[in-house]
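Run log // design_07
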């Protein structure tokens, strides 16, 4: 990966993270999209996790930390893995599918943790937890879709206008 491409991708993720600091509806954030974008676009696996995770952490320092941070960051890591899968399969349909899967897994994982921490440990508590979270899920879906479209779309336009930003194809390994 060229240094220029890394700088552009890092700047895009940082700008997305800054969007968390402006007023927005609950769960309408770039978090899921940042993770998928990092996983899909940053060639180095470590950077694919580190760049968006750092942006998330720095914005969390301004927004505040909470007891569910480990679960949220674990879910974030799962979204990076979804992005890694997308890396060599990126089409509009596969990207939309991965973004949807990322939103769903975030909903399932984080609300399971909420149920364990804040609701009675029974079927009624479980149901109440997930039902209460449905309005937030709508915003998660919308935020992930809009921010993923912005990130991937901006990169596509930038790569078209500035071909040096394109990622070079991996070289074949010969024996």
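design_07 sequence
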């Amino acid at each position: 990966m060229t240094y220029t491409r890394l700088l552009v991708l890092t700047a895009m993720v940082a700008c997305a993270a800054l969007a968390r600091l402006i007023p927005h509806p609950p769960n309408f954030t770039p978090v899921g999209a940042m993770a998928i974008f990092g996983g899909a676009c940053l060639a180095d696996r470590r950077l694919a996790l580190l760049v968006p995770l750092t942006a998330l952490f720095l914005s969390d320092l301004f927004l505040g930390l909470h007891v569910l941070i480990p679960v949220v960051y674990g879910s974030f890591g799962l979204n990076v893995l979804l992005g890694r899968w997308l890396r060599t399969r990126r089409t509009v349909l596969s990207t939309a599918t991965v973004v949807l899967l990322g939103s769903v897994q975030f909903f399932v994982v984080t609300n399971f943790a909420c149920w364990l921490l804040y609701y009675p440990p029974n079927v009624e508590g479980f149901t109440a937890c997930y039902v209460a979270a449905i309005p937030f899920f709508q915003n998660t879906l919308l935020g992930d879709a809009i921010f993923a479209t912005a990130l991937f779309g901006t990169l596509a336009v930038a790569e078209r206008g500035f071909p040096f930003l394109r990622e070079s194809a991996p070289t074949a390994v010969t024996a």
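DSSP finds six helices and no strands in the chain.
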